[in-house]
Protein backbone atom coordinates (compact mmCIF):
# COMPACT_ATOMS: atom_id res chain seq x y z
CA UNK A 1 0.00 0.00 0.00
CA UNK A 2 2.83 2.39 0.79
CA UNK A 3 4.20 1.96 -2.73
CA UNK A 4 0.83 2.79 -4.26
CA UNK A 5 0.49 5.98 -2.18
CA UNK A 6 4.03 7.00 -3.10
CA UNK A 7 3.28 6.54 -6.80
CA UNK A 8 0.06 8.56 -6.47
CA UNK A 9 1.91 11.34 -4.63
CA UNK A 10 4.62 11.32 -7.32
CA UNK A 11 1.97 11.53 -10.04
CA UNK A 12 0.28 14.53 -8.40
CA UNK A 13 3.64 16.23 -7.91
CA UNK A 14 4.49 15.66 -11.57
CA UNK A 15 1.15 17.08 -12.71
CA UNK A 16 1.51 20.05 -10.39
CA UNK A 17 5.03 20.73 -11.66
CA UNK A 18 3.87 20.65 -15.29
CA UNK A 19 0.98 22.97 -14.47
CA UNK A 20 3.28 25.40 -12.65
CA UNK A 21 5.77 25.33 -15.53
CA UNK A 22 2.95 26.16 -17.94
CA UNK A 23 1.64 29.16 -16.03
CA UNK A 24 4.88 30.38 -14.44
CA UNK A 25 6.18 33.71 -15.72
CA UNK A 26 9.97 34.02 -15.20
CA UNK A 27 9.64 37.79 -14.95
CA UNK A 28 7.27 37.52 -12.01
CA UNK A 29 9.56 34.94 -10.38
CA UNK A 30 12.55 37.25 -10.75
CA UNK A 31 10.62 40.20 -9.30
CA UNK A 32 9.54 38.04 -6.37
CA UNK A 33 13.12 36.89 -5.73
CA UNK A 34 14.33 40.47 -5.90
CA UNK A 35 11.67 41.54 -3.41
CA UNK A 36 12.76 38.74 -1.06
CA UNK A 37 16.35 39.93 -1.25
CA UNK A 38 15.26 43.49 -0.53
CA UNK A 39 13.35 42.24 2.52
CA UNK A 40 16.43 40.35 3.71
CA UNK A 41 18.60 43.44 3.19
CA UNK A 42 16.10 45.50 5.16
CA UNK A 43 16.26 42.98 8.03
CA UNK A 44 20.06 43.12 8.04
CA UNK A 45 19.95 46.91 8.15
CA UNK A 46 17.50 46.81 11.03
CA UNK A 47 19.87 44.39 12.78
CA UNK A 48 22.73 46.81 12.28
CA UNK A 49 20.62 49.62 13.70
CA UNK A 50 19.61 47.50 16.73
CA UNK A 51 23.22 46.50 17.46
CA UNK A 52 24.38 50.10 17.06
CA UNK A 53 21.64 51.21 19.45
CA UNK A 54 22.73 48.62 22.04
CA UNK A 55 26.36 49.64 21.63
CA UNK A 56 25.45 53.28 22.14
CA UNK A 57 23.45 52.44 25.23
CA UNK A 58 26.44 50.57 26.69
CA UNK A 59 28.67 53.54 25.89
CA UNK A 60 26.31 55.88 27.76
CA UNK A 61 26.20 53.53 30.74
CA UNK A 62 30.00 53.33 30.72
CA UNK A 63 30.28 57.11 30.61
CA UNK A 64 27.85 57.43 33.49
CA UNK A 65 29.74 54.78 35.44
CA UNK A 66 33.04 56.52 34.80
CA UNK A 67 31.55 59.70 36.21
CA UNK A 68 30.35 57.81 39.30
CA UNK A 69 33.77 56.25 39.74
CA UNK A 70 35.41 59.68 39.56
CA UNK A 71 32.90 61.02 42.09
CA UNK A 72 33.62 58.18 44.54
CA UNK A 73 37.32 58.72 44.10
CA UNK A 74 36.92 62.39 45.03
CA UNK A 75 34.63 61.51 47.96
CA UNK A 76 37.16 59.04 49.33
CA UNK A 77 39.85 61.66 49.05
CA UNK A 78 37.78 64.24 50.95
CA UNK A 79 36.79 61.72 53.62
CA UNK A 80 40.40 60.75 54.17
CA UNK A 81 41.35 64.42 54.46
CA UNK A 82 38.60 64.79 57.08
CA UNK A 83 39.99 61.85 59.06
CA UNK A 84 37.01 59.71 58.08
CA UNK A 85 38.86 56.63 57.04
CA UNK A 86 35.72 54.51 57.27
CA UNK A 87 33.91 56.71 54.76
CA UNK A 88 36.95 56.71 52.50
CA UNK A 89 37.04 52.90 52.66
CA UNK A 90 33.32 52.66 51.78
CA UNK A 91 33.75 55.01 48.83
CA UNK A 92 36.69 53.03 47.54
CA UNK A 93 34.75 49.77 47.96
CA UNK A 94 31.87 51.14 45.86
CA UNK A 95 34.38 52.42 43.38
CA UNK A 96 35.87 48.94 43.00
CA UNK A 97 32.40 47.48 42.37
CA UNK A 98 31.67 50.05 39.72
CA UNK A 99 35.02 49.38 38.08
CA UNK A 100 34.11 45.68 37.85
CA UNK A 101 30.79 46.60 36.22
CA UNK A 102 32.60 49.00 33.94
CA UNK A 103 34.91 46.23 32.79
CA UNK A 104 31.88 44.08 31.98
CA UNK A 105 30.32 46.97 30.04
CA UNK A 106 33.54 47.46 28.12
CA UNK A 107 33.53 43.76 27.21
CA UNK A 108 29.91 44.04 26.04
CA UNK A 109 30.76 47.17 24.13
CA UNK A 110 33.61 45.44 22.32
CA UNK A 111 31.37 42.48 21.44
CA UNK A 112 28.59 44.76 20.20
CA UNK A 113 31.03 46.80 18.19
CA UNK A 114 32.44 43.67 16.57
CA UNK A 115 28.92 42.42 15.82
CA UNK A 116 28.00 45.79 14.37
CA UNK A 117 31.03 45.81 12.11
CA UNK A 118 30.25 42.27 10.96
CA UNK A 119 26.65 43.21 10.16
CA UNK A 120 27.79 46.33 8.33
CA UNK A 121 30.10 44.24 6.15
CA UNK A 122 27.32 41.70 5.55
CA UNK A 123 24.95 44.51 4.68
CA UNK A 124 27.43 45.96 2.21
CA UNK A 125 27.99 42.57 0.56
CA UNK A 126 24.26 41.92 0.43
CA UNK A 127 23.64 45.37 -1.02
CA UNK A 128 26.17 44.69 -3.78
CA UNK A 129 24.57 41.30 -4.42
CA UNK A 130 21.09 42.83 -4.60
CA UNK A 131 22.28 45.53 -6.99
CA UNK A 132 23.92 42.92 -9.24
CA UNK A 133 20.80 40.76 -9.11
CA UNK A 134 18.62 43.73 -10.01
CA UNK A 135 20.78 44.51 -13.05
CA UNK A 136 20.76 40.89 -14.19
CA UNK A 137 17.03 40.63 -13.45
CA UNK A 138 16.21 43.55 -15.70
CA UNK A 139 18.46 42.17 -18.43
CA UNK A 140 16.82 38.74 -18.25
CA UNK A 141 13.33 40.28 -18.24
CA UNK A 142 14.13 42.39 -21.29
CA UNK A 143 15.62 39.39 -23.09
CA UNK A 144 12.65 37.21 -22.17
CA UNK A 145 10.17 39.84 -23.34
CA UNK A 146 12.00 40.21 -26.65
CA UNK A 147 12.13 36.43 -27.11
CA UNK A 148 8.44 36.13 -26.24
CA UNK A 149 7.52 38.83 -28.76
CA UNK A 150 9.69 37.20 -31.43
CA UNK A 151 8.10 33.83 -30.72
CA UNK A 152 4.60 35.26 -31.05
CA UNK A 153 5.54 36.96 -34.32
CA UNK A 154 7.02 33.74 -35.70
CA UNK A 155 3.99 31.75 -34.57
CA UNK A 156 1.69 34.29 -36.19
CA UNK A 157 3.61 34.06 -39.46
CA UNK A 158 3.70 30.27 -39.34
CA UNK A 159 0.05 30.03 -38.30
CA UNK A 160 0.66 27.83 -35.24
CA UNK A 161 -0.38 30.35 -32.63
CA UNK A 162 -3.73 29.97 -30.89
CA UNK A 163 -5.21 33.10 -32.46
CA UNK A 164 -4.03 32.25 -35.97
CA UNK A 165 -5.05 28.64 -35.40
CA UNK A 166 -8.62 29.77 -34.71
CA UNK A 167 -8.56 31.88 -37.89
CA UNK A 168 -7.24 28.94 -39.87
CA UNK A 169 -9.97 26.68 -38.52
CA UNK A 170 -12.63 29.24 -39.43
CA UNK A 171 -11.27 29.48 -42.97
CA UNK A 172 -11.15 25.71 -43.25
CA UNK A 173 -14.76 25.39 -42.06
CA UNK A 174 -15.88 28.06 -44.55
CA UNK A 175 -14.10 26.28 -47.39
CA UNK A 176 -15.60 22.94 -46.38
CA UNK A 177 -19.11 24.40 -46.33
CA UNK A 178 -18.54 26.08 -49.69
CA UNK A 179 -17.37 22.82 -51.25
CA UNK A 180 -20.31 21.01 -49.72
CA UNK A 181 -22.79 23.52 -51.19
CA UNK A 182 -21.08 23.37 -54.59
CA UNK A 183 -21.18 19.58 -54.56
CA UNK A 184 -24.85 19.62 -53.59
CA UNK A 185 -25.73 22.09 -56.34
CA UNK A 186 -23.84 20.02 -58.92
CA UNK A 187 -25.53 16.85 -57.73
CA UNK A 188 -28.98 18.44 -57.98
CA UNK A 189 -28.19 19.66 -61.51
CA UNK A 190 -27.16 16.15 -62.54
CA UNK A 191 -30.30 14.67 -61.03
CA UNK A 192 -32.49 17.22 -62.80
CA UNK A 193 -30.69 16.58 -66.08
CA UNK A 194 -31.06 12.82 -65.75
CA UNK A 195 -34.74 13.06 -64.84
CA UNK A 196 -34.28 11.54 -61.41
CA UNK A 197 -35.69 14.75 -59.96
CA UNK A 198 -38.62 16.74 -61.39
CA UNK A 199 -38.30 20.42 -62.12
CA UNK A 200 -41.41 22.11 -60.62
CA UNK A 201 -41.00 25.12 -62.93
CA UNK A 202 -40.96 23.17 -66.21
CA UNK A 203 -42.48 20.18 -67.95
CA UNK A 204 -41.24 16.68 -67.46
CA UNK A 205 -39.28 15.28 -70.39
CA UNK A 206 -38.49 11.64 -70.94
CA UNK A 207 -35.30 10.32 -72.48
CA UNK A 208 -36.66 10.20 -76.06
CA UNK A 209 -37.88 13.80 -75.91
CA UNK A 210 -34.51 14.96 -74.63
CA UNK A 211 -32.74 13.09 -77.42
CA UNK A 212 -35.00 14.61 -80.09
CA UNK A 213 -34.45 18.07 -78.66
CA UNK A 214 -30.73 17.50 -78.72
CA UNK A 215 -30.83 16.32 -82.38
CA UNK A 216 -32.90 19.34 -83.38
CA UNK A 217 -30.53 21.65 -81.63
CA UNK A 218 -27.53 20.01 -83.34
CA UNK A 219 -29.24 20.22 -86.79
CA UNK A 220 -30.03 23.90 -86.34
CA UNK A 221 -26.50 24.63 -85.30
CA UNK A 222 -25.10 22.73 -88.32
CA UNK A 223 -27.39 24.57 -90.74
CA UNK A 224 -26.49 27.94 -89.34
CA UNK A 225 -22.80 27.08 -89.46
CA UNK A 226 -23.05 25.97 -93.14
CA UNK A 227 -24.90 29.16 -94.03
CA UNK A 228 -22.24 31.29 -92.39
CA UNK A 229 -19.48 29.44 -94.28
CA UNK A 230 -21.29 29.86 -97.62
CA UNK A 231 -21.86 33.55 -96.95
CA UNK A 232 -18.17 34.01 -96.38
CA UNK A 233 -17.37 32.34 -99.75
CA UNK A 234 -20.08 34.40 -101.49
CA UNK A 235 -21.68 31.45 -103.39
CA UNK A 236 -25.28 31.43 -104.66
CA UNK A 237 -26.06 28.42 -102.57
CA UNK A 238 -25.28 30.53 -99.58
CA UNK A 239 -27.74 33.14 -100.66
CA UNK A 240 -30.38 30.52 -101.26
CA UNK A 241 -29.72 28.92 -97.92
CA UNK A 242 -29.88 32.24 -96.22
CA UNK A 243 -33.02 33.35 -98.01
CA UNK A 244 -34.72 29.99 -97.71
CA UNK A 245 -35.56 30.34 -94.03
CA UNK A 246 -36.87 33.87 -94.70
CA UNK A 247 -39.12 32.68 -97.56
CA UNK A 248 -40.30 29.78 -95.49
CA UNK A 249 -41.15 32.15 -92.72
CA UNK A 250 -43.41 34.30 -94.99
CA UNK A 251 -47.09 33.28 -95.00
CA UNK A 252 -48.40 31.83 -98.21
CA UNK A 253 -51.19 33.77 -99.99
CA UNK A 254 -53.50 32.42 -102.71
CA UNK A 255 -52.82 33.67 -106.24
CA UNK A 256 -55.26 36.34 -107.49
CA UNK A 257 -56.10 36.63 -111.20
CA UNK A 258 -54.75 39.83 -112.55
CA UNK A 259 -56.77 41.84 -115.01
CA UNK A 260 -53.82 43.80 -116.21
CA UNK A 261 -51.35 42.43 -118.67
CA UNK A 262 -47.79 42.44 -117.49
CA UNK A 263 -45.17 44.41 -119.33
CA UNK A 264 -43.43 41.26 -120.50
CA UNK A 265 -46.62 39.95 -122.25
CA UNK A 266 -47.15 43.34 -123.88
CA UNK A 267 -43.66 43.36 -125.21
CA UNK A 268 -44.06 39.86 -126.60
Topology at a glance:
Layout: H1 2-23, H2 26-81, H3 85-158, H4 162-194, H5 207-233, H6 236-249, H7 263-267
Short characterization:
The chain is an all-alpha fold and 268 residues long. It has helices at residues 2-23, 26-81, 85-158, 162-194, 207-233, 236-249, 263-267.
Key features?
mainly alpha; 7 helices; 268 residues; 0% strand; 86% helix
Molecular structure report:
This protein is mainly α. The chain has helices at 2-23, 26-81, 85-158, 162-194, 207-233, 236-249, 263-267. α2 runs antiparallel to α3 and α5 packs across α6. The longest helix is centred in the middle third of the chain and has 74 residues, at 85-158. The radius of gyration is 59 Å and the shape is rod-shaped. The model is unreliable at 251-268 (pLDDT under 50).
Distance between the termini: 140 Å
What does the largest sheet look like?
A: none
Level of helix content? Answer: over 70%
Number of DSSP-assigned strands: 0
Provide the residue-averaged pLDDT.
77
Q: Strand share of the residues? A: under 5%
Shape: rod-shaped
Structural class: mainly alpha
- The number of helices is 7
SSE ordering = HHHHHHH
